[in-house]
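Is magnesium ion placement plausible here? Inputs below.
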Amino acid sequence: MMVKRIVANSVSEAMELVKQDLGNDAIILNTRQIKVGGLFGLFAQKKVELVASVEEHPVVKTVQPVAPQASSEPRPIKPVVEKRALSVETVSPKIVSFASRRLPEALCAYEVLLAEPALQHEAEALYDLLVSTYYKTNDLDQVEQVFAATVTDSIRVTAATSRFIMVTGPTGVGKTTTLAKLAAYYRLTKQQKVGLITTDTYRISAVEQLRTYADIIDIPLRVAYDLQEFEQAKVDLSDCDVILIDTAGRNFLDAGYVEQLKKRHDFSETDVFLVLSLTSKYRDLEQIQQRFDQVPLSGFIFTKADETIDLWSIYGLTKKTQLPLFCLTTGQEVPEDIIWPTSAEVSRMIVERGLR
Ligand SMILES: Nc1nc2c(ncn2[C@@H]2O[C@H](COP(=O)(O)OP(=O)(O)OP(=O)(O)O)[C@@H](O)[C@H]2O)c(=O)[nH]1
Ligand SMILES: [Mg+2]
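Reply from A.M.:
I modeled the complex. Tokens:
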């Protein structure tokens, strides 16, 4: 491997020199800003030092037939191997690898991000974006901005537009707690008439948990043990502006139940949000999303953002499913630990947490 150190006025100028000297196959091992010249640290010029390498392949030259010499013995024709001069300092290269490709060392903070399971389908495109932006601008702040803007473009957010809001999702992710936060938001902040229905009657404590919140917020709660009672509960709450429905995750994994529910409830007037915990592994979340896809989903609620620094599942799942984000929950406190970020805000959270 031939390694070369180049000092130039800018990264783009250095890149051009690398291309000229080592060709298009050269790999950038390291870049850094250096100061050249000056006296006692004064008047030094800012330069860019770039270290690049290329695999050394012998260059085989076509050899012209040699005219026969005076001697009678014919000379064997040998290929001439031209060795390229190694007019460089030997350096110990710092390589940041991403799969078979390398990121410039200045971008090493992104290496962890690109290895994220939630980014696996996008990693190559994001890699190209990072490297080209870095070499174009030589400015890490701009790289971060362009990266965040790409993430922003992929995340849609939505407001709930229907009178019925139903939460579904696996056990223990925070469905009931989130529903209580939503109830408080619509009742106290938006001053709307709110009703609660729970169809999660598998555990006594589940009903009691919601009843406690309903009492504190001072809103009516109906408990529906079957689909008939569910229909009656809707009639009872017909004067409410918003009706929030808690469910038991297991019901939505039962195809028979979902078929019956679809016959008795008009989903076109319901926003169904899949509640997922950000503490779960991305691959598990992908599977859960597919299993809960039996009713038309309006979007995601992601919970427990306070318990992880890794928010990439939001990006991965919203991009993959094209479903929007409704809200994020950030702690156990009802009603305060819930936010409705814009696409830009949530992408900033994702990128900043990933890079710090
Ligand atoms: N740290 C943290 N904990 C949360 C958050 N949301 C809910 N929890 C906690 O998660 C636990 C489960 O919350 P629940 O609301 O009962 O979850 P669920 O999905 O209704 O659970 P099941 O009804 O049993 O399926 C409780 O201890 C909540 O306080 C959150 O945003 N952050
Ligand atoms: Mg619950």
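Short version: DSSP finds twelve helices and 15 strands in the chain.
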